[in-house]
Amino acid sequence: MSARSTIMDDNSFRAEHADALDPATRALTERREKSLGGSYRLFYRRPVHLVRGEGQYLWDASGRRYLDMYNNVASLGHCHPAVVEAVTRQASTLNTHTRYLHETILDYTDDLLTTLPAELDRAMYMCTGSEANDLALRVAKFVTGGDGVIVTREAYHGTSELTSSVSPALGSGQPIAPTARLVDAPDAYRVDTPDLGAWFAQRVSDAIDDMERAGTRFAGLLVDSLFSSDGVLPGPAGYLREAADVVHRAGGVVIADEVQPGFARTGEAFWGFARHGIVPDVVTMGKPMGNGIPVSGLVARTEVLDAFSDRIPYFNTFGGNPVSMAAARAVLDTIRSEGLQEHSAAIGAELLTALRGLATRHEAIGDVRGAGLFVGLELVSDRTALTPDRALALDVLEELRERGVLTSVAGPHGNVLKLRPPLAFASADIAWVTTALDEALTVLTS
What is the domain-level CATH number for residue 364? Predict the structure, then answer.
């Protein structure tokens, strides 16, 4: 486990960068440090001061336009008019909690469930993905009577005490629960095996056996089906089936963390887990469901959720409030009306093809992989040895930032560019990305 947090400390502004800033930017960073403290992080050695967004684009305080290649929270696109209108209309009418009757939460739930397997028939709502995963873990522990949870070695599942204890991507300063087990992610680029599904299932099985030897009862597997923080590892569709079978045979539950893979992003399916032909026991989702409005959810099989809800009343003051539900409904409607799942598949394929073409000209690009509009581009110093090049990746980010392209890195080595734009990203934007990458790599490796 890395001492640094791969999702927080890589691609971040640090105090030693301050001298290179213009006076206005430096003053803002100092004000932020004084007001907000040291736990927060800023992207880039020269932070970006954003003031406006529209679709896949962002503008800074000087009026410069950027292409957002990272922000899945504004999943449809920044300030999408359908969401703005729905939120404005509902906020001007009523916003309160879920202990009063209201149709919006029920109408949305009925619609949301049509996108999921029939076995998943109950929903609960919160405000953040962390809360959704926190509740999912509590449910898993209730239904199984265990507390042993398996996650991948560079996973990130949230910031609550429970979810951070199964989020090794936060770095070694964050203790991992003694009942948790970390397994290697199924990395098709680095794992030499003819059957990635069997390979990953064996790691899960070994972790369950290790729990039993330690006297820990197994509760479940919590997994992001794109292994986003592990380096964006979509792998071949279907390879998670064997691991899910192992979990169920051992009496555990499968929790699909869909905060990043869900809501049409992969193009191949509406949900990331659906690419693999599995039916999880619990599915969690986060702010992309509301295009950035604080809303999250948990959907589960009735028999799984009842083990918790029959004993524990649950109340989240603004989880599922009418304004958030209006935003979520607008997102679901827009995904359908604008054909965004099909769009994600088509434009994602174009982007992969263009980036793989770039790899023929740059030896530093070791691998390009993705599903829909979620792509990982891995940088290496030696293609034969697959040697990760974190330093190059971080320098590339800075060069991209100077060329108006915003993104960040992922993976245990911090060497994978995580390209995850809002679904508004279009074919016409691909040239901006590839040209900026081509120029950045040429400058840095020539």
Answer: 3.90.1150.10
Per-residue pLDDT of 190-202, as tens digits, reads 999 999 999 999 9
- How confident is residue 32, by pLDDT bands cut at 50, 70 and 90? confident
CATH number of the domain that residue 280 is part of: 3.40.640.10
Residue type, 50: L
The two tokens of residue 199 are 């390979």
Residues 6+ apart with CB under 8 A from 126: 132, 135, 295, 296, 297, 298, 316, 319, 320
Q: For the chain, state the CA radius of gyration.
A: 21
Same domain, 127 and 265: yes
Number of DSSP helices (H) and strands (E) in the chain, helices first: 12, 16
Query: How many CA atoms within 13 Å lie on the side-chain side of 6?
Result: 25
Q: How far apart are CA 366 and CA 349, in angstroms?
A: 18
Q: What is the percent of the chain where pLDDT is above 70?
A: 99
CA–chain centroid gap for 406, Å, is 16
Range of the domain at 246: 81-337
SS3 58: strand
Look up residue 67 and give its DSSP letter: E
Give the strand pairing for 218-223 and 253-257: parallel
Residue type, 369: R
DSSP string for residues in 135-151 = HHHHHHHHHHS--EEEE
Per residue in 376-417, pLDDT (tens digit) is 999 999 999 999 999 999 999 999 999 999 999 999 999 999
Return the number of other C-beta atoms located less than 10 Å from residue 215's C-beta: 8
The percentage of residues in the chain with a pLDDT greater than 90, rounded to a whole number, is 85
